Amino acid sequence: MKIKNNNIVLIGFMGVGKGTVARALSKNLKTMNLDCDDLIESSANMKIKDIFSTYGETYFRNLEKTLAKFLASSVRNAIISTGGGFIHAKDIKKIGTTIYLKSSFDAIITRMQNSENSEKKFAKRPLLKDPNKARELFNSRVEMYEKKADITINVENKTPKQIVKEIKKALSLKDKN
Ligand code: S3P
């Protein structure tokens, strides 16, 4: 499969493991990994949760849109891990080939609860604070993830290593030494 701009863009809900998979993939492919939330935090010089509490969600979404434009015009040959709401940025499909890391809501929450730094992982995500609202958000987004995905990988109960293997297979990427 031809990879658009030679960029692999990971999409999916909060806590599904986009960052973990992106790091494993970039190590495996010897490519740079850019994390959208990190890029926004360093550009704004603020943590995501502080951007939300100080300026609100719309302001954050606009930062995501600006970032999507920048990535589409200026970044090549990278792994890009997006925030869960980045699928709403108009230019996302212009950035690269999108891979949807798919999992049920309950499996995501269990994964987060069982992970190291579980508390920190919840604390830094304002939209996960209320479990009922988070589930609603998940349900409202599923269709959009499917729509924006060039490739869908079911990640439930899989290790990063297995997921990397599946992504490479889907993209017909060979191992590099
Ligand atoms: C968000 C997901 C977060 C972060 C922000 C909003 C969302 O990223 O961008 O808290 O709207 O789903 P992760 O998906 O990396 O948690």
Automatic annotation (TrEMBL):
Q: Give the GO molecular function terms.
A: ATP binding; magnesium ion binding; shikimate kinase activity
Q: How is the cofactor bound?
A: Binds 1 Mg(2+) ion per subunit.
Q: Which reaction does it catalyse?
A: shikimate + ATP = 3-phosphoshikimate + ADP + H(+)
- Gene Ontology annotations of biological process type: amino acid biosynthetic process; aromatic amino acid family biosynthetic process; chorismate biosynthetic process
Q: Which family does it belong to?
A: Belongs to the shikimate kinase family.
The record's section on PANTHER family has: SHIKIMATE KINASE, SHIKIMATE KINASE 1, CHLOROPLASTIC
Q: What is this protein called?
A: Shikimate kinase
What species does this protein belong to? Campylobacter californiensis
Q: Which gene encodes it?
A: aroK
